[in-house]
Design goal:
Layout: H1 12-24, H2 27-34, H3 38-52, E1 57-60, E2 63-66, H4 68-92
Antiparallel strand pairs: 1-2
Helix pairs in contact: 1-2, 1-3, 1-4, 2-3
Length: 95
């Protein structure tokens, strides 16, 4: 198993932005939906691509289309976001 340094850990916020972009299909629509600027969305996706070391989107006139690696990440990103919610709910109910 590969050990990662903290700087290479996946950030939940990046994964949420990634999933929002997948849902909305373009940087502009995503920016409106999650109330961030388009340059912020682009910067976050470049950061995520740098962390995973793969291109996740092909950007074109019709928006952002997932690459094969992007499709793989969608499944994992949903699992991480869901697990995060599950963890928080488990501790919330124990308070």
């Amino acid at each position: 198993m590969r050990t990662q340094t903290e700087g290479n850990d996946l950030d939940l916020g990046l994964l949420r932005t990634f999933l929002a972009l997948v849902e909305h299909g373009s940087m502009g629509e995503t920016a409106i939906a999650i109330e961030k600027t388009q340059p912020t969305i682009s910067q976050q996706m470049r950061r995520l691509e740098k962390i995973v070391g793969r291109k996740l989107f092909v950007r074109g006139r019709n928006g952002a289309e997932l690459t094969g690696h992007g499709h793989v990440l969608v499944t994992y990103a949903h699992r991480v976001v869901d697990l995060n919610a599950e963890i928080l709910l488990a501790f919330e109910s124990r308070m």
